[in-house]
Protein 1
Amino acid sequence: LAKTTQPISMDSYEGQEVNITCSHNNIATNDYITWYQQFPSQGPRFIIQGYKTKVTNEVASLFIPADRKSSTLSLPRVSLSDTAVYYCLVGDIRIGGNTPLVFGKGTRLSVIA
Amino acid sequence: EAQVTQNPRYLITVTGKKLTVTCSQNMNHEYMSWYRQDPGLGLRQIYYSMNVEVTDKGDVPEGYKVSRKEKRNFPLILESPSPNQTSLYFCASSLSWGVANTEAFFGQGTRLTVV
């Protein structure tokens, strides 16, 4: 199971782009990178997932370099409502892949007006 | 609407009084799991289930039991609750074991206080 390392916390002003980097040096060939968002007193919510290069959806972008040893979640023009904890997970999503859904401590993002 | 439903949302109980937190999903998911969340410790997995009648321990299983008699339900049982089990609990489900990291859906949470 690839270990992930993220900053414990980050602060940003409204309207700025926020980049949260996750380090996963031991990522395996069949591992995907997934990010979740959690608001206070709510369960985590899936944001984005990728394997390599760049993935973009309506919420965020995920940048993965060629060596895949890290990934960066990019949130464009954050607002106060983006204040949350963001979790980076790495695991095998193949049918029969043996990876439990394990969360670390995540990155607490605080957006300031 | 696809959802994971936990009950109760809030519970205050006394030490040693058995309790059950229910979890139900309507997405026909195979994989379900329970987490507890404590300040400074993040989300820690208690138990998970890969399918009916198949369960296994997560990182912090002591003091908890689970059962998976049918696909949609995955109750969490505290036979003899203690104050150190005061926490926020989440149930989650996803399509299958192998795609556990594709998208997991979480319940609203159960805030348990044991006095």
Protein 2
Amino acid sequence: SQTIHQWPATLVQPVGSPLSLECTVEGTSNPNLYWYRQAAGRGLQLLFYSVGIGQISSEVPQNLSASRPQDRQFILSSKKLLLSDSGFYLCAWNAGRENYGYTFGSGTRLTVV
Amino acid sequence: KQEVTQIPAALSVPEGENLVLNCSFTDSAIYNLQWFRQDPGKGLTSLLLIQSSQREQTSGRLNASLDKSSGRSTLYIAASQPGDSATYLCAGANDYKLSFGAGTTVTVRA
């Protein structure tokens, strides 16, 4: 069966520090991968998605970047965090076919202080 | 761009009452529509997936309908229990992406 792993679960970082969040999927190949952010009191916002290794689409211009160094690995990064980067970050995957649903990881709670 | 709206934003009911959660979307060219549950501080748990060719999907006490022509989906939860208290999110899939509503926060009072 397929599983998605996301870490760390919580993170407290000072303003201006770098960020790296990792997400991996097991039990499938060539998944579509996604990063979402949920800010306090707001809905889920799609940040990045990838339909293949090295291919990244950005939905919202911001202080963050994403990379997909391996087929089932998706990384969210920042060189210098801002206070506004605080939120709940969720990784998700999809089999890339229209009739498949999306599966989400357990999330990372990021607090920038 | 797909816009998803959920009404109401919050709902409080006594235990045993049936719940009706509404979702509307602007782009009817969705591949499918998915309902999720989110507990405080947790990730998303998929409840039901309705394909664009389907009219409804059922799992236990949950039933979701889909009307693409009117851009609406409804989640019904029968005989609610305190354990059903959570935020429920609907999301439409278009163009490799999932667009979410803001959610309906449900409280079931014992």
